[in-house]
What we know:
Structural class: alpha+beta
Shape: globular
Number of helices: 5
Largest sheet: 5 strands, mixed, barrel
Radius of gyration: 19 Å
Number of domains: 2
Number of strands: 9
Amino acid sequence: MVTPFSRVTQAPQSKGEQDVTTTKNRIGPTSLRNYLESQGWSLVSEALVDRLYVLDNERFPRRQLTCPMDTSYTDYTESIDVVIDKLAEMMGLDKQTVEAEIGDFRDEHLQKEGVFVGSVEVLEGAMGQDGRRFGAVVLSLKIAEGEVVRARATLTAEDYMRAHDAHMKPAAYIRVAGRLGPERQPKLLTRVTSFEAFTAG
């Protein structure tokens, strides 16, 4: 059952308390929602009337993620922490990496969408409930003549298998369509719509 979060009027905070609150509130609800949708999570529309984002994902049966739509709710920071902890566990990533990836959506207007060619550097996936691996990979992508960047993407089980094959075969490359963020390297590649491996020759 979806339970609305409560609002209260808070007393003034000390400088130290303000610093902690600012740090915890660095992830906005829209950034979190956009990130989750890019990773295959879908909104449960019935929850919107209670001012909540509730999302589910067919890759994780019987698991839902919930956060308020408004940072003024008193439960906001605790809810974000819970979501990040769950995501880190399910995706096989550390909490700091998940926080950084969510934060990248604040700069969405600076992101570059297109098709990129490159190679697979690192496989960081986790075993899913269906016995197949999925999740994070680190790619080396050519984005312009003479310019190559490292980027992290979260892949489905099917695309992860293609990434694994490209990583293991000599002279194998990948072609991926998605949105590349503007942040530090490794950058974040989201909204992956296609992923294929091929051999040069």
